[in-house]
Amino acid sequence: MKTLYIECNMGAAGDMLMSALYELLEDKQGFLDVMNGLGLPGVKVVAQQGKTCGIAGTHMAVTVYGEEETEPGIAVGEGHCHEHAPEEAHDHDRGHAHGLFHEHGEEDDHHHEHDHYHGHGETHSGHHHAHGEEHSGHHHATPGHIADLIGSMDLPEEVKTNARAVYDEIARAEAKAHGCPVSDVHFHEVGALDAVADVTGVCYAMYLIGAERILVSPVHVGSGTVRCAHGVMPVPAPATANILEGVPVYGGSILGELCTPTGAALLKHFADSFGPMPVMVTERTGIGIGTKTFEQANCIRVFLGETEEKGNGEITELVCNIDDMTPEALAYACSRLLEQGALDVYTLPGTMKKGRPGHILTVLCRPEDEGKLARHILEETTTNGLRVHRCGKYFLAPGAEQVQTLWGEVRVKTAEGFGIRHAKPEYEDVARLARENRLPYRTVYEEVLQQRDRKAEDGEE
Asked: Of 127-136, 177-186, 351-360, which one has max mean pLDDT?
């Protein structure tokens, strides 16, 4: 299986990830030509060779009107929420997630003082920008504006869908961090442009690489605190922490912010799973480097190669033969075993000793629950012994979604992995809507799947 492994020993940022993936591409110039032809105002993408702790790699410099706005991917972390006082003019005192602070006076003369904390430890205070007449005004882009900008690009639809989904993840995290609705999240126009380039660049590189399986190491987020316009915040920053919920992370001894919201959202969107590097035959390796110097190499490494199709977990199977329980008693025992933590319980008919009809009871459980479930089987049934089989297993990672239909909301169970995706509407929800609206079950079921497909096409997943 064609597998991409991403090593995040020094965190993750959008441009560093794009740099590493760029090194895997066969047509590097073609990639740069596409990125520089997206129509992003004033944006230029240049691949620069560099070194970190003596290791050669690529730094993807994304400039806006000739200036490299931020160190790795921080710009999108500048999202903020508008707070408008009733009956008053818009006097905005905006704290951005990573310290970009705008104070707009009554005349809004666009003289901005920037206090930038740069993702891997660099702070620039009092940084003034003058972009000339072509960029004389700074505006603030909503998630909708960003989605429209991405939608207008000459890129494959799959790339645009992924890019919009990444931005949706960031917008939700920023909204939670600032305590406001997603619709009130705004990104600074200039800062957003290089972040859009980072996000679309990674999504396009992923599309060109075409890995069937993407695995990511646990993410090093850094430690300590960073200073921003509103004061001192902990690492990881709130938006980054929100995005990385459910992802294995660690702090380590390096002071500073190593993982940005952009990097976190990209990893979470594309990763099939997080964990150690699998056994793989590597074909190509890419190194994306940051500009800040640390005591260890400041880079993201990516490995592209082949892995064997193998199980991604273990399971324990507990089996016993039963020929002296009534159907009612056996059914009760099965329900109790499920309540006590079994993953699945089922029976098969069988012929026991002396030709007696009976049942083969099978209980599936987590390896760590083996002893507990074995004792419960002995308690709940009449068997005096059972067999244990420890097995490898293949499984699709479970998930859940909510889909809005004409008649109401329906939960959808999902499963994903190995390049495969399954989706199944929740029976109870479908049945309830069918009864309430006097519709055939199949009508509601198919409507749920159609609405989910439309949602995916619109990039809302």
From this structure: 351-360
CB 300 within 8 A of CB 273: no
Closest CA to 235 of 125, 120, 123, 126: 120
pLDDT value of position 230: 63
Question: How many whole angstroms separate alpha carbon 296 and alpha carbon 10?
Answer: 9
Strands (E) in 69-113, as ranges, are 80-81, 93-95, 101-103
> What is the chain's alpha carbon radius of gyration, rounded to the nearest angstrom?
27
Residue matched to tokens 């760029």: 22
Q: Are 52 and 111 in contact (CB under 8 A)?
A: no
Region 345-365 average pLDDT = 93
Which residue in this structure is represented by tokens 């309830």? 432
CB–CB of 207/158 below 8 Å? yes
Give backbone dihedrals phi and psi of 120, rounded to 5 degrees, phi first.
-110, 40
The sheet carrying 43-52 orders its strands as 43-52, 55-64, 281-289, 299-306, 2-7, 213-216, 273-274
Question: Are 203 and 210 a contacting pair, CB within 8 Å?
Answer: no
**How do residues 45-93 score in pLDDT, each as one tens digit?**
999 999 999 999 999 999 888 877 543 333 333 344 443 333 332 232 2
Strands 387-393 and 313-322: antiparallel
Task: Judge whether 443 and 458 are in contact, CB under 8 Å.
Answer: no
In our burial notation (b when 16+ CB lie closer than 10 A, e otherwise), range 270-298 reads bbbebeeebebeeeebbbbbbbbebeebb
Q: Tell me the per-residue pLDDT of 274-286, one tens digit each, with 9 for 90 and over.
A: 988 988 999 999 9
Mean pLDDT of all residues in 341-355: 93
CB of 338 closer than 8 Å to CB of 369: no
Q: Are 400 and 452 in contact (CB under 8 A)?
A: no
What is the domain partition of the chain in residue ranges? Answer: 2-306, 313-393, 397-457
3-state secondary structure of 33: helix
Domain 313-393 has CATH 3.40.710.10: no
